[in-house]
Amino acid sequence: MTDAMVLAAFRRIPLPELRAQSQPADKTLINFDTIFFTQAEPLTRELTLLGQDVRLEIEPSTFVWDHGDGTTSTTRTPGAAYPSKDVVHRYADARVTVEHRVTVTWTAQWSLNGGPLRPVDGTVTTTGPQTPLRVAEASPALSGQR
Q: Which of 6, 14, 17, 20 has the highest count of CB atoms within 10 angstroms of its CB?
């Protein structure tokens, strides 16, 4: 069993194409912290190569957030919903709809026949679907005169 064979098997395993989520979800404001996150979980796959049992422990390691306005940011975490602000972006242009998405790089470790885990020498990248987000501008208004 060679490292190259394990890497080739890792690259054939279907991995989730994670959807980027935002808060607010459908419409946000310029100059406002828009929160981004995705549901990324480690996973295990069992397979047989050359008659040997191989276990792959796969986990997301890097997240590249494409905000849809020509900017990106890279994190090591999948972000989280409010009140967390692990991954945020402020849009500068209003009256547009952007298409945001996340690209995830997956790493893995492998074991042969229940032996110790060793790192896989390579990664796999998946890109999630684009999600529309309307960017608007709000104007303050006074109310409740005394």
A: 20
Determine the residue type at 85: K
List the one residue out of 59, 57, 42 whose CA is nearest residue 112: 57
Residue pair 94/69 in contact (Cβ under 8 Å)? The answer is: no
The pTM of this model reads 0.90
**H/E stretch holding 70:** none
Q: Specify whether the CB–CB gap between 119 and 95 falls below 8 A.
A: no
CA–CA distances in Å: residue 57 to residues 42, 73, 86? 7, 26, 25
Backbone phi and psi for residue 49, each to the nearest 5 degrees, phi listed first: -125, 125
pLDDT in tens, the chain (146 residues): 789 999 999 999 999 999 999 999 999 999 999 999 999 999 999 999 999 999 999 999 999 999 999 999 999 999 999 999 999 999 999 999 999 999 999 999 999 999 999 999 999 999 999 999 999 998 777 777 66
In terms of DSSP H, where are the helices of 17-74? none
